[in-house]
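To fix ideas, we quote verbatim a fold written out as tokens:
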Amino acid sequence: MVPMKHQDGYIHTPFPQQLVIEVTAACNQRCIFCGRSYMERPKKTMPRSLFEKIVQEVAHESPYTEIWPAFMGESMLLGNKLFDQIRYAKEIGCQKITLNTNGTRINERTVPHLIECGIDRLIVSCDAHTAATHALVRPKTRSNGEGLEEIYRGVLLLLRTLHKRNLRRPLIEMQFSVFDENEHEAEAFCRFWLDQGAIVKIRPKLHWSGTVADGGSPACSHGRKPCLWALETAAIHWNGNVVMCAVDCEGKYVAGNIEIQTVKEIWNGPLRWIRELHIRHRFNELPEICRKCPDWGVKKARAYFPDTFWEAEYEGYLRQGRIFLQQHYWREAGPALRQSSAALH
């Protein structure tokens, strides 16, 4: 099957460009902006056999599909089990693996595993630059030593180790999702991590298809366009349910189940119908969760780079094997950030 281009320039790909796999729905934080904090479905862990079935299909059908072994949980809570799963995916031929973590498990013990297991990109989402703000926006589920200071210490150790060993992978990306409670720290966060040699992503607030209150950001208020979440991404819950997209945290629309179907069958069946409605701008015919979702306009984020070398590395990784040509991130930067570094977009 080859990509089919619509008359407006959108493409039906034979396989998702990104595949989000919920290896666990367990988490050690209860973030105020995260759909998981309001999620009612069971929060369990995916069986290893199901994960292997999924990545075997990716390796066979579309090796450059970007695998995200995380959805509505903190994957690093699985410890060595996670690293073993990632190694397995790499060994059988999966070429792109991105891990998104809250950073609370990055430490002296896990840094060697993060470097050696085969991850290509590590996104650390902490959304704050002071301990007080971090405690506000990312509350812990129990009393422990997983505050911002520990997260920063772990990431800095990882960056130093990569530099010492002259390694280019994994790419280290510090992510800051902007909302009212933390927006005053975004610039300081960006400057600090650029100085440490990390890539920085500033992301608009997600509302998890309306799960989180106060939805409807300015980017989503008018002029709706086809959603890149729907066009590029498939998401699989721990029980094998393939849902509407990567922001359907509750699973309000289930397109199929990997226990009895393949990713390719579901992607070219019910999910193709969803994509076609987007492409034809027939938004009022979409399932309710998609029809009312405000997140179609916030998939892209602003990425900043410590220098042109890491910009090229990052962009090269994103484009590797991709069919879609739309930029994954915005290039413009605010004046204050532009003055802080010549390498900022």
